[in-house]
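Quick check before the chapter quiz. The format below is the same one you will see on the exam, so make sure you can read both the input and the output lines.
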Amino acid sequence: MNKGNRPDQFFETDDAAAKRERREAKAGNKNGSPIALKSKILGAIADPNNPSSVLVAESSGSVRRVNVDRSLGTSDMRSCGGPGNQTIFAGSWDKDIWSWNTASKTRPFGLCQSRAVYETGGKDFLISGGADKKIMIWDVETGSRLHVIQDQVVSMMAVQDLAIDPESSTADELVLASASSDPHIHCRGRAGDTGTTRPTILEHETTVYKLAFDIHNDDVDLWTASGDGSAKCLSRTRGFTTDDTINHGDHVRAVAFTEQWLITAGRDEDVKVWDRATGKLYCALEGHYDEVTDLVILTNSPGAGTRLVSVSIDGTVRVWSLDKSGLDKFIQEQQDKANGVEKPTVEKAPEGLMTAEEEEELAALMDED
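Here is the expected output.
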């Protein structure tokens, strides 16, 4: 008796069948020059040691260094940066945090979902947050837990992201923002120089997945990505209230930005690029066929210009040019495809036969003889 192992061999609703068929049809596209890995990709960061690489965390329990130019391929750390750019920290569903030396790939000690690393007083510290609704501070050198933080005023749910405020933090004291499965953003640490830091920020309707301070902006405002389908700019000078809202359309899992563009991505599979000057959608980068989980900006790759790396539950790493010419080229290709315009193909001469030009040259030489 044969056992079925395909989804279409089991009962599924019409909506589920339509979704599966759409994804199967979309899976073969080559937009973004996909690099396929073996499992779902849950997160990514830029490789601090290689401007052409990213470190990606997989649901299989591995972290891989992926060279997006493919010259070095991928390497398995089984591990996401750390002090001196030599240590990788990875939080896992097994409730542990592990650290790896990026050079030797050895595991010094085992210590989670979100993490941040900072240095103060000449010592390195790790901050982690997890589904247990707690934020913990660790001594990196010893692996010992120093503090446990829980909000006493507003009930905080599972921690989704952590971000250190680069504007308000000092060498001796830091300001930490945390996002969780509830709509609140929690700020901890000293107030900023403007005195406008709020302990709790409520600007979204549901889960806040991502926090990112905008270093391209003079005020270093805070950008958020939420399950309510929006990304918001929270103005520092206005007490981190909403200054701008981008309506992506579905759960927003990631947000990234350059001086010219704001990029959002999430459950609807598309990576959307917004013009920061106008706030309008410039283009949607279509390629992934499942939820997009993270975005990384690469800026220092030799001769490559500014690029965006997107990762997804579909197990692919995709790379997109953020130069205006590169985006315009993608838009034109998508329009041509929608209109049924095919690219002209250049016919190659059969191997061993001369081209028409070569035959003419040969005929001319024979006439001279």
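If your answer matched, good. DSSP finds three helices and 26 strands in the chain.
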